Amino acid sequence: MRVALVVTLLLATAAGMAATVSVGPGPPDAIAVAAKGLQPGDMLLIKAGAYAGNIALNLHGTAEQPITIRAAGDGPVIIEGRAEAKSGWQPVVEHAGVYVTADAGPVAGVMLDLPDSPWGVDDVPACRDLDALARAYQGYWLDADGQRLYVRIAAGASLAGHAVWVMRDGCGLAVTGEHLRIAGLTLRRFAGSGISVSSARNVTLEHCTVSHCGAVWSAGIQLGKTAEVTVADCVLYRVRNGVLAQDADGTRLTHNTIYHTRAHGVYLVSGSGAVLRDNIIFAGGGSGSALYVGPPAAAGLQSDHNCFLDTRTSALISWMPLGLRFATFWDYQQTIAGQDEHSFSADPLFVSTAPGQEDFRLKTDSPCRGKASDGGEVGVRW
Fold first, then answer.
1. Do β-strands 235-239 and 209-213 pair in parallel, antiparallel, or remain unpaired?
2. pLDDT per residue over 272-325, tens digit each?
3. Do the Cβ atoms of 300 and 274 come closer than 8 Å?
4. Residue 144 has what DSSP assignment?
5. 42 CB contacts (<8 Å, ≥6 apart)?
6. DSSP secondary structure string, 148-206?
7. What is the mean pLDDT of residues 340-363?
């Protein structure tokens, strides 16, 4: 049960001092309201509990006094989208393979087998009307006037054995601004990105966990028009893409664990000066690579001490400046000079990858032990 919003000023901002604000579960906009007045140097502590998504933050710290938003440390802080496993499906007689059920919306996206799929989200794209849906390979259409939801999967395959999940919320946390640090949050079950950072610079995301996001083309963490964003010690699993960076300069990905994406593990579309170091990228679902580098993103790229593994496609790494897709890490390493000289491809040997029982600590015999740039573990360190 959600309790009332709690905001406590521990230091007086009126005296020109930094303030620490704490917030607990309450109204859907509890975090946004608590964060609205943050000034350079302030800190927002989020108490343990469940919070609604669709949080939008526009905050401006300074290089000397960044703004910090982090879990208070009294338990998990979970920002969760509304997701519903729909039942009551009936076949539509005039359109073979199409099913319908009552639904009043909103619908931000539709996924199949959300908590149980071993390969990340399997999205069902939106269609403009029932006729378009009937012609589609796979899709859904919400008849808002009639309050009915139609779905078609895999060219009219039966829904038997599948759970159809309706996602009500688009994005977990959308961030704009500068000189920000966000730490210790768990985000899950959003049709779009778990965390979106756009029109921002000097932002650090650390110790965050994002899962079951991306019914639309998005990512666990999505960057757009950013500069100097660091993603460190984060776990991203069962998402569409792990990290997607577009028009993102100076992106730094260090000590992250990315597991079983539906598409790409790390997707560097454009931007220069990215650094990938000490990450586990165990990814690449039915249509992606563990690492995809677009032509603009190769400029200034530094990648090393990473563990790559892709088990479902023939393209472990896609190096698009040369239009090449490498089926094995050896092929990539022999062809692309100056990148990933100390990286490797192996099963990281996590403690557990069973759906709902994920434990991304490394087993004692993991090949990722002792392989980081500092001699420690590759992947997350917590």
1. parallel
2. 999 999 999 998 766 689 999 999 999 999 999 999 998 777 789 999 999 999
3. yes
4. T
5. 13, 18, 19, 20, 21, 67, 68
6. EEEEEBTTTB--TT--EEEE--S-SEEEEEEEEEEESEEEEEESS-SEEEEEEEEEEEE
7. 95
Q: Do 349 and 227 fall into the same domain?
A: yes
Look up tokens 């930094």; give the residue. 18
Whether residues 241 and 284 fall in one domain: yes
**Is the same domain home to 156 and 175?**
no
> Structure pTM?
0.93
- Integer angstrom CA distances of residue 177 from 167, 199, 307: 28, 7, 32
In terms of domains, do 251 and 215 share one?
yes
My answer on whether 210 and 115 are in the same domain is no
Cα separation, 202 vs 175, whole angstroms? 12
Least trusted range by pLDDT, from 87-91, 140-144, 155-159, 259-263: 155-159
CA distances 237 to 139, 147, 283, 302, Å, are 23, 33, 9, 24
Mean pLDDT of 200-226: 95
